[in-house]
Structures are given as C-alpha cells and as structure tokens.
Amino acid sequence: MSQSETGAVSGALARFVAATRWEDIPPAVRHEAKRSLVNFFAVALAGCRDRTLDLATGVYKRFSAGEQATVIGRRERCDILTAAALNAASANVFDFDDTHIPTIAHPTAPVAPALLALAETQPMSGRDFLLAFILGVEAECRIANAVSPSHYARGWHITSTCGVFGSALAAGKIFGLEPRALVWALGSASSQAGGLVETLGTMAKSVGVGNAARNGLLSALLAREGFDGPDAPLEGVRGFLNVTSERARPDEVDGALGQRWEILANTYKPYPCGVVLNPVIEACLELARRPELAGAAGRIEDIEITGHSLLRQRTDRPGVRTGREAQVSAQHAVAVSLVRGKAGLPEFTDQAVADPALRALGAKVRFRDDDSFAVEAARVAVRLAGAEPIVVSIEAARGGPKRPLSDADLEAKLRELCRGGGSGVEPEALIQAVWALDERDDVGSLMKLAAGVN
Amino acid sequence: MSQSETGAVSGALARFVAATRWEDIPPAVRHEAKRSLVNFFAVALAGCRDRTLDLATGVYKRFSAGEQATVIGRRERCDILTAAALNAASANVFDFDDTHIPTIAHPTAPVAPALLALAETQPMSGRDFLLAFILGVEAECRIANAVSPSHYARGWHITSTCGVFGSALAAGKIFGLEPRALVWALGSASSQAGGLVETLGTMAKSVGVGNAARNGLLSALLAREGFDGPDAPLEGVRGFLNVTSERARPDEVDGALGQRWEILANTYKPYPCGVVLNPVIEACLELARRPELAGAAGRIEDIEITGHSLLRQRTDRPGVRTGREAQVSAQHAVAVSLVRGKAGLPEFTDQAVADPALRALGAKVRFRDDDSFAVEAARVAVRLAGAEPIVVSIEAARGGPKRPLSDADLEAKLRELCRGGGSGVEPEALIQAVWALDERDDVGSLMKLAAGVN
After folding, report:
1. What are the residue boundaries of the MmgE/PrpD C-terminal domain, all occurrences included (chains A, B) (predicted)?
2. d(Cα B216, Cα B113) in Å, to the nearest integer?
3. CATH (one of 3.30.70.580, 1.10.4100.10, 2.60.40.2470, 3.30.930.30) for A8-268+404-450
4. What is the pTM of this model?
5. Which CATH architecture has domain A275-394?
6. Model confidence over A217-243: pLDDT tens digits?
7. How far is it, in rounded angstroms, from Cα A63 to Cα A81?
8. How far B163 CA sits from the closest chain A CA (Å)?
9. Cys-Cys crosslink for A362: which of A47, A199, A331, B149, Cβ 3.0 to 4.6 Å?
10. How do residues A419-441 score in pLDDT, each as one tens digit?
C-alpha cells in the first residue's frame, strides 16, 4: 500500500476540511447555507417527476441495494448512492438551481444529496450537516475557481466535474476522515470527474450531475476503508486542475481558507433560465404589464435586446425544439414573457415551445451587443407597427448578486415549485425545518418531509 | 423529449454497430478477440485478490442489488453493474492487460466485463458475445485514435475515458438498439467519461477503469428505455473529441469502418510492466543467463540502457516505493530482472521494491536516448568492475506487434497467473471454453468456470 504524503494544495484543502468546526463558520455563511437548501428543495421538488427522473429512477432502482434513503418527491426509496444520484439529478434537471456567480456552477446539487442520504443511515445533527455542506460547497467552488474560465468554455460541465470533489469532502467530513484519507477521497473523485456541456438540454446531462453526488460519496466511503490515491490529485502534473484547465490557478483552492467563503457568492434564480436571461425576462415582464402592449403581441414588428455580448453568445437560439433548449433561448424567453406575462416552469415546456405564435414572435428578436452593460443588465425595446419603440431597461436583475432573492422569495419559490412538481409534498413543514436546521438533532428525519405522497 | 437527429460521426459509428453481423467479421478478427479474452481471464485471475479488489469489493458489495453476476476469481456475487466494475478493475489492476499499440489503451477491461455480466442475466450465444465484444473494442479504439496522442499526454487515462464508449456500444449491440438509441448511449457515456493518469500507481485508478465498464453498461440500459442525449456526443463542438483532445481527428472514428479492425493492433504483455520496458527486461533476462554475470550483481558498476526517448520519459523512476510504481520504473525492472532472472508479478510487489540490494543496483542505471531505436527495441550494457561492458541488444521485444505472444504463450500466461492469483480457479476448462466460444450457446455458463472457489 502506498505510503502517501499529501500534495501541497490537496493537502491544505483536506486539512482545512478536517480542522474546521461549526464555531468557525460565520453567521452569514450559516444562513446562506440554509438559503441554498431552501432553494435546493424547491428545485428538487420541481424536477422530481420529470420524465428524465422517471426513466432514471426506473433503471437505477433495479441496481439499488435496499431502501435506506428517500428519493425527494417520489415514493421510491433507494440505497444511499442511488438516492444521492437521483436527488442531485432532480435538483438540476431544469437548471433552476443555484448559481455560484464566479463560475456559473450549481453548487448544491452535488453536495446536499450525498449528505441527506447519509443522514438517513447514521445519526447526524443539523450543525454537523450544515458544516459538512458548507465545506463541500467551499471545496467544489474553489476547485471550480481554479479551473475557470477555460474549463467551462472548453466544454466541461463544471457542476458535475467539480461537484464530485465537494461531495467527496462533505461525506469525508461526516466520517471524520483524517487529511490523508480526505486526499484519497479526492483521488477517487478525480478518477470519476466528468460531464460535458454538449449534453446540456438532454437527459444525458443528469447522469453526470447525479454521478457527481453519488461518486463523491462513494469516494469517501472507499477512503474510509483505506482505498488510496495519488498524493496530489488536484495540483499534480496530470491532476485535475492541469488536465481540465488551460491555465489552472491552484492558489484559488488553498488561498485564504477560512477567510472568504464561496457560498456567499451563491445566487438563486427567479426564472428557470440561464442567468444571463434574467434581466431580459424582467424587462419583458414589465413590458407585458404596459397597457399599450396588452393583447398587442400580434402587432409587434421588432424586438431589440441590448446587453453584454455574453447574452448573445449564450442565448441566441432561434427555432428551439424542446423546453430544455428554450431555457437558454432569448428568442423563446422574450416571446413567452411578453405574451404570457409569466416566466415560470410552465413557460419553458415542449408544449410552450410548440406554440406557433411564440415562434413567430421570437423570430423578431434582434441582439445588440454592448459590453458597457453588466451581465445582470439589459435593455429591451419593442416596436409596434407604426409606433415608437417602448423601452425598458434593467440595471440589475432580480436574483443577481445586487438584488438577491429574499428569504421570503425563496420560500415562495419552494411553495410554487412544490405545487407544480406533482409530488404531493406539504411545503410548510419542510421550509420551517430547513430554517431551523442548526437546532435539529437528526437530519435524517427531515427527509420524511420531502418524500413523495402521490 | 428531444427529437434527436444523430450527428454525422456518432451516427455513422452507431449505424455500423447496429448493422454489423457475425458473418461480416473476418476470421483473423474473430480469433484475435478470443486471444484478447484468454489474456483478459489471465490478468483478471491475477488481480482478483489484490488488496485494491478486496477493499473495492467490500464497499461496492454493500450497494449491489442481488447476486446475478460472477466476480471473477472471488466467491462474492453482485448485480451486473457492480460485477462489471469489479471485473474490469481486476483485469487492469496490475496493468498487465492488453495494449492497443496505436494508443496504449487497454481495450478489453472495459468491454468484456459488461458483456459477461449481461450474459449471466439473459441468453447470449458465443457468437453474439464475440460480435458485440469486437464492435465495442472497435469503437473505443477508434475513439482513442481520434483523440490521440494529445489525450493521454495531457493526462487522460485513455483506457477509462474511451472505454466507457466501448462498453456502451457493446451492451447496446446485445440489446439490439437502433442507431438513434446507440447515439443516446454514447451521450450518457460521454457524461461519464473520466479517469486521470495522475491516479496510476494507486488504487484510485481502478475506480475509473471499473466505471468505464459499469457506466457504459448503464448508458446502454438507459438508452434502451428512451433516455436521450445529444445528437453528436463525440464530434459536437463541446463533445468528447474536442474537449479531450488538442487536435481531434473525427475521421478516425468513422473512416473505413468494416475495412480495418482495431483489435488486430492489440498486443499482450509478457511482463507486468509498461510496454516500453519489454525490450529492456528481455535484454536483462538474457544477461542474467550469462555465466560471467552469475552471482555478480554486487560487482556491477554501471548499467546503460539505450532506447527511444519515450523509454526514458515513461520509465525513469528511481527510488519507487510500491510494487505498482515499480511496474513503470526502469531502475527496478532492470535490477530485479538481472538479479532474479525473472520478471513476473512476484518481481513487482511492495516486498520486491523494499529489497535494498535491488535499490542499490537500480541506482546504477543510466539512460541514453537514441530515437533511431524503435519503441520495441533497446540495448542494455552492464559493466562489472574492471571489465568491458557486456551488451545485449533486442530488436523487437516479445509481446510487441512483430513478435506477438503465441496462443500457447497466452494459455501459459493464464495458467501461471491463475496459479498465482489465489482464486482456486481451474484454468484448463476456462481456456478451452474461450477458444470454443463461437460454438457456445450460452456464454453465461462460462462464468461458472471463472468464479473463485477459495
């Protein structure tokens, strides 16, 4: 067996995870963790009955040993690895989950499901859970920072690729692993890091996101038994950072540990779309409320949207065919927001996309790049036949770092998505349980509140 | 659900896999497949009781639903996904498995275990098995060709990263999937492609290799249920080829399909080491037989090995600490071959590495680069105190494409490794069963011959 020493960067991260106590976590960080979890249950309860989850659950359940863990919003129960995978997939299937602004990673989906599954098989206090969750998110976001921006740009689905490390360290923290074993867990996680941007908009994406949660947990379980790995799985010459980034910055992993907290850069979406669309949708919803545009969609001649060039690069998708694609299509988002005055999940379905009126309206969208706009800003100008354009500008969209969703907004999101998701879950008890997590003795029992009753 | 069209390259590969029949497979290809399988059982029976497998089996078994499938050389039985993972890990744990020369990938480990596990849960003739195996190997090796050489050089463990596609298509072939569903399987496989060179020499490597077999099979199971994926998981802008290669050559995937067969470029190792060490070991074994060197190891002053610069780049590893590392260390390989006159698995253990005499002798190794040497050639010059060097040159090492192991060599390898592996398996019946595979009605029953009896 290898007499491993730990590498400098992987070792520093592992020592930090091993040493950090609940008392070391600032109050704002603790609260943000709860906000992330309210949002997590909201999006998991929205996604849990999607066809992707129906198909995945059907196959995965055949390879599940026992029924120790809850599948959120469903009646099936699974072993902890399977439940971790399915719950991560549910939370991310609509890309409506949280966004770590520096990297556009979704940090909660890979980490929370691993811990929630574990909590159903061993005693776990709310504080231990929150501490491990915060540390797992910290690790995956720091690793994501270290490989950004070239990592995602090249085609790595950063939520999956980096998430597996967060899950591994979070579970390892619950197991009380020593730093050396935590580095081993990072090593087995590094063997399982994968996920491609090419799969976005298809079911295959969810396999990768589910694996991030599942395989991180598996890596920690292996490390606990002495299953070893390389000394420097992150910073090694052929380690994760160098292999998946054109210009890795390892100091992002171990710099100022315990001084800055990545979860404070986490945000929550008001609309089930790529975050760059937030200000566009907000402008369109305001336009839809203007009396002069009431019932006038058929007379719109031209729609000009102005924003940072990233807006066009990420969302110029005319003629999309599915609800999934519509979530990253400015053409569809603009049309549906203007016509329906709403931009919730029902506005981004295959049926919504098939509406010929929306397709016709979307075809009138023109982009204007202006890099003086922040990514969270946009201007939408709508012109009716023979009239002057009606213009709405948004300086900072809701859901962005400058105008975060409030706690009440997040509760409302959970209530609405829970209602629409078809699970029959009663949201109020779950909401209260999450806000009181740090007073809870037994996190496992919380999952009873999230099990599907239909 | 996505109305997928298939991309040009992924689609062509899928159509080839769907359309190819047993009658289309040339006799030499059929026979090479059997040779690959003899070698596969040899190395799996060698690795099955390694500590890596003991630990992995202990953890994986807890998450295995049922006992449908055999774990080679062990008494445990597992579900088919778990058995696929463990059997792939066994076959590769010592890096003693087959080598696809153009890419240095190990093609059999990810593919055969998925099919063998399936064969224990559904009727499968030997011809159907061999056909699916040949097509799976063809697919993974072509994908490996398309991303080489930058893929491995950057740090991707090509056996794992490309193997998952081979497993997916092999299983999909058994399921009789249509081309569109085979592309979906490639899509879910692309979400799961991973594995880093940094993990070589540690247990973590085996997680990635196991996943290649497991997750390819899982991808085919998902695709069979309609679980969709991107149109072009391989050649898409953010697909596997572009993301994991600096200069992808998609035509390597779909060029001359059915006209050249990659399994004909497969080779089998006589020694449990990196293939570039083959000629060096062979020279040292010959030197060890020279009367003037008998018992003279202590008087060796200098050892010069001359070969292609790749030899030095891949194997200049003094002071290795573990048997695993020793397998890619010229210093250890030279020392142990000279002193013991053997180079089998017992010569590459932690105990062998710990021998101070071998360490001292290994420290006397000097490299001399000469790119006029082929990779399968080397010269070793040993100089005793006060004497002229004794020189042995090897033009083409055994096990390379010019001097492939014979069928009898492969049988002998299986017998020897089976005896050393500790499984108690009786090799003769297994050997005969593999050679007669194309006459067998039921491949599943073959696995009874490979189950551990100790």
Report:
1. 271-436
2. 11
3. 1.10.4100.10
4. 0.95
5. 2-Layer Sandwich (3.30)
6. 999 999 999 999 999 999 999 999 999
7. 10
8. 13
9. A331
10. 999 999 999 999 999 999 999 99
